[in-house]
Amino acid sequence: METLLTKYILLMKILVLDDHPIALKSICQTVSEVQPDAEVIDVDTADKAKKAIQELNIDYAICDLQLEKNKNLEIPNFCRAEQIPYMVFSSHSNALLLKELHSLRALCIVNKSESYEVLKEGIKSLINKKNFLCPTNQKALSEIPNTKEIRQIKFTKKQHEILDLLKQGRDQNEIADILHVSPVTIRNHLAILRNNNDCQTTQEVLIRYLFWE
Q: Which range of residues forms the domain containing residue 36?
């Protein structure tokens, strides 16, 4: 006889978001092993994830953070707004990001370097609506590293263009030619970026920019 619990489990829908096909397939398989009767919906972009959440009555979500440009925290924010319990499964592991995810009410956070058993434990905790922080992330929090380097940086539209060109490997003279300004103007923009974001070097600015891109 079908019980209410069985009926609920049969209707459970778990969304999995990762833009790497192999990782996506592996996570979905693990979810199915942990909860065989759940329907697993796999997507590879933040936009598809949002659409699924809006249209498919998703119960739980598991998401990566390393997605398309400027969308790292879009799904955590969206899950929080929609009050959907979610787990972050990402290779990023630092105190500042973990605190940010905590503020966004991430129920479980598992680093991709963890074992299969730890991933399963995280998924089980998510389904049971219990908080779970994997050992790698526990260590990151306990060590309290200098997290300045991964704070989001502030920049103007023009500075954004400069950073995008630096990311492509262009030097300052090439950037000046492309943007039709003088090399001095580029140097001034970079100096302002360093000063406004408490960075010692342009490389530090670029690292932080790439992290949150």
A: 4-143
Residues near 172 by beta carbon (within 8 Å), at least 6 away in sequence: 183, 186, 187, 190
Check whether 151 has a pLDDT greater than 50: yes
Q: What is the dihedral of CA 78, 30, 132, 38, to 10 degrees?
A: 60
At a CB cut-off of 8 Å and minimum separation 6, what does 194 contact?
A: 200, 201, 202, 204, 205
CATH code of 187's domain:
1.10.10.10
Task: Specify the pLDDT at position 149.
Answer: 47
If you search the block for the tokens 């929609």, which residue do you land on? 82
Q: Cα angle vertex 73, ends 81, 92, to 5°?
A: 135
- Give the integer Cα–Cα distance in Å for 11 and 151: 40
Q: State pTM to two decimals.
A: 0.65
SS3 state of residue 131: coil
Write the DSSP symbol of residue 128.
Answer: T
CA-to-CA distance for 123 and 111, rounded, in angstroms? 12
